[in-house]
Amino acid sequence: xxxxxxxxxxxxxxxxxxxxxxxxxxxxxxxxxxxxxxxxxxxxxxxxxxxxxxxxxxxxxxxxxxxxxxxxxxxxxxxxxxxxxxxxxxxxxxxxxxxxxxxxxxxxxxxxxxxxxxxxxxxxxxxxxxxxxxxxxxxxxxxxxxxxxxxxxxx
Length: 155
Hints:
Low-confidence stretches: 118-155
Helix content: under 10%
Strand content: over 45%
Distance between the termini: 10 Å
Strand order of the largest sheet: 3-4-1-6-7
Shape: elongated
Number of helices: 1
Radius of gyration: 17 Å
């Protein structure tokens, strides 16, 4: 496999369904550059993430393979979204560039894959549903709580 040195991924998020909360770059790469912008009148916000170079202490297992973790992305249901609304196409992921240490671009403009922390390695598929908030004592919660998403490359 190719050792990943530099990467750029984009996540398009449907703004009436999900909102950006936070992100954390994988520990193998230098600091992640983040930019968010509206995509005209499409109803989507594009979240762009990139990193140039790996850290000195990055191991081969962190930067080589068909599923190299790039970042953890946390999204939350948009305010006012009624329960039970299916969120087909709520987000899309693109691997814009994956570049090895020899400056060879081995992936360009390819659809990406999002795995959630509960999928045990399987791709997140099907329909994302928003659950009714339930009262529990003095607190209200969404069953299962927020879920962090990990953007991975798959060749």
